[in-house]
Design a protein that fits this description.
By secondary structure, the chain is mainly beta. It is built from no helices and 7 strands. Strands 1-2-3-4 form a 4-stranded antiparallel sheet, with no helix packed on it. A 3-stranded antiparallel sheet has the order 5-6-7, with no helix packed on it.
Length: 71
């Protein structure tokens, strides 16, 4: 499963298999906070990649699909 960190190091975008994409605020290592989730209709999320500006996430699944999300 994939993990991408935002350019400002404040957010982790985690590809969570059947649970889709989950986003965590990681700014404070002592207080990691769940921020948001995006379901993917049980298509088993396998990868997440962020654009250089951090505004777009590219999500892949085991079926070869690509989903582009404004984050």
């Amino acid at each position: 499963r994939g993990v991408s960190i935002s350019a400002d190091d404040n957010y982790a975008f985690v590809s969570c298999g059947a649970n889709g994409l989950q986003i965590f605020n990681i700014k404070n290592n002592d207080d990691l906070t769940f921020t948001a989730a995006l379901e993917n209709n049980n298509k088993f999320q396998t990868g997440v990649f962020l654009s250089a500006d951090g505004n777009t996430a590219y999500l892949t699944n085991r079926y070869g699909d690509l989903q582009i999300v404004d984050v």
